[in-house]
Specification:
Layout: H1 3-14, E1 17-21, H2 25-30, H3 37-51, E2 57-60, H4 63-66, H5 69-85, E3 89-96, H6 100-111, E4 121-124, H7 134-142, E5 146-152, H8 159-162, H9 172-184, E6 193-197, E7 219-222, H10 231-238, E8 245-249, H11 251-254, H12 260-273
Parallel strand pairs: 1-2, 1-8, 2-3, 3-4, 4-5, 5-6, 6-7, 7-8
Helix pairs in contact: 3-5, 3-12, 6-7
Length: 278
Amino acid sequence: MSFGARYVAALAERGHLCAGIDPHAGLIQAWGLDDTPAGLERFALTAVEGLAPHVPLIKPQSAFYERHGSRGVAVLERVIAESRAAGALVLLDVKRGDIGSTSQAYADAYLDPASPLAADAVTVSPYLGFGSLQPFVDTATKHDAGLFVLAFTSNKEGAEVQHATAAGGGTIGGLMLDHLRQLDAGAAPLGSFGAVIGATIGAVHDPDAGLDYDFNGPILAPGYGAQGGTPDDLARIFGPAARHVAASSSRGLLQAGPSTTALRDAALAAREELAALA
C-alpha cells in the first residue's frame, strides 16, 4: 500500500492525533529520570508503550535523540520499530533539506527499508527549491513511503519566507502546496506527499483568503494542544481538507507521564476531541 493509503486507513481506525515523542531534557527530568541515554531510553519507550497502540501516527523528533550520540540514535531505532509493531505509522521529524547526493543519502537513511532508521514518512524542507526534494520524492515513491513538506509552519519566524510573494503571485508557502498538488494529482484514496501547516497560523491563511488546502495529500498540523491550537481552529483553517489532518501534540501528551495508563488516557481524550475532523 502507498503511504497515502496507509495514512487514510490509520486515521479512519485511530482518529486524527499525531503523538510527538520529543524527549526534552526538562520532560525527562519531570518524569524523575536522569537526562542520560538510559533516562532517554526509559522515557521514550514508556511513551511508545502508552501512546503507540492508540494513535495513527507517532512522530519522534530526531534531534532530541541525536543529542545523546550513538546511544540516543539506537533508542530512536527502537522507538521506530516498536511504534510500528504497535500498529502506528511513524513520521520521523528530521526536517532535512539539501541537494544532489546529500539529499539522496538522507532519503536512503530515513526511507529505505534496509536502514534501521527507516520510517513511514519524514518531514523535509523545500526552501532550497522544491526541485531539491526530488531524491526524497523518488525514494519515497520507490518504497511506498511519504513526505511532509514544510509549507506554513507555526513558528513566527517562518512568515518572512513562507508568507513572501512568489514570482508568479501568491505566497511561497502556497507555491509549495501547488507543487504538492501536482505530485498528488490523481492518487486514490490520497496522495503520499503531504504538507506541514501549523494549527496556529491564524486568519491570514483562512480559506476565505483564497488558499486551498485540499491538495489531495496528508496534512500535519503542529501546534495543537499545549501551543494553543484547538479543533475549532483546525476546522476553520482547513475547511473540507480537515479530514486529511493529523493534529500533532507532544508536550500536551507527554506531561501526563510517566504512567502509561495516564498517557493512554490523554491520547484517547485528544482523539475524542478531534473526532469532528473526520
